């Protein structure tokens, strides 16, 4: 009887660990996207800071520039507030992770079978990371020829005006904006 109860408890634990491992793999793929977003936000904040420094010198001359600089400054403060809230959330998640890890150590929950399934999850997330849409070989891209030609024409450095150009590539998520920009610029 005790063996049956122990066997049932063990199988339930293995199932729970498998579900947790799947959830961890999903979280990992989300975290990869978050890292890319953090890099983007960092670059945007640096650009905003450079703009605000330049606008500070000219704000007495141009009222429109002054208003725009105030809006950019407010936006940068809002972004910093959001990042602060995110870091608090990450810190609380880290504490939860440490608690779960300590519980595992205390009760010796991870068995050899669970360790191998965690290794499988790690291998799976590594496969996902290596097949990210931004890492696709250009020969595999379909339907990008016209957009690629238009983008290259827009950033032609040999144009006669000699001005610095900024191009925004916009659209719904998953359409390939990042891939298009990274592969062609």
Automatic annotation (TrEMBL):
GO terms for molecular function: nucleotide binding. InterPro entries: P-loop_NTPase, RX-like_CC, Rx_N. GO terms for biological process: defense response. The keyword Repeat applies. Keywords: Leucine-rich repeat, Nucleotide-binding, Plant defense, Repeat. Residues 17-97 form the Disease resistance N-terminal domain. Signal peptide: none annotated. CDD domains: RX-CC_like (cd14798). SUPFAM superfamilies: P-loop containing nucleoside triphosphate hydrolases (SSF52540). Belongs to the disease resistance NB-LRR family. This is Disease resistance N-terminal domain-containing protein.
């Amino acid at each position: 009887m005790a063996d049956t109860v122990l066997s049932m408890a063990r199988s339930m634990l293995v199932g729970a660990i498998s579900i947790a491992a799947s959830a961890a793999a999903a979280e990992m793929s989300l975290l990869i996207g978050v890292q890319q977003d953090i890099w983007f936000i960092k670059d945007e904040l640096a650009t905003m800071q450079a703009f605000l420094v330049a606008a500070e010198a000219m704000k007495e001359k141009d009222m429109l520039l002054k208003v725009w600089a105030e809006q950019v400054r407010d936006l940068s403060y809002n972004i910093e507030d959001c990042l602060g809230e995110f870091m608090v959330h990450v810190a609380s998640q880290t504490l939860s992770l440490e608690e779960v890890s300590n519980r595992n150590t205390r009760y010796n929950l991870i068995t050899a079978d669970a360790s191998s399934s965690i290794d499988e999850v790690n291998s799976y997330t590594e496969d996902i990371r290596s097949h990210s849409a931004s890492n696709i070989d250009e020969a595999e891209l379909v339907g990008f020829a016209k957009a690629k030609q238009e983008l290259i024409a827009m950033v032609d450095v040999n144009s006669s005006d000699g001005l610095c150009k900024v191009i925004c590539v916009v659209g719904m998520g998953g359409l390939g904006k990042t891939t298009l920009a990274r592969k062609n610029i």
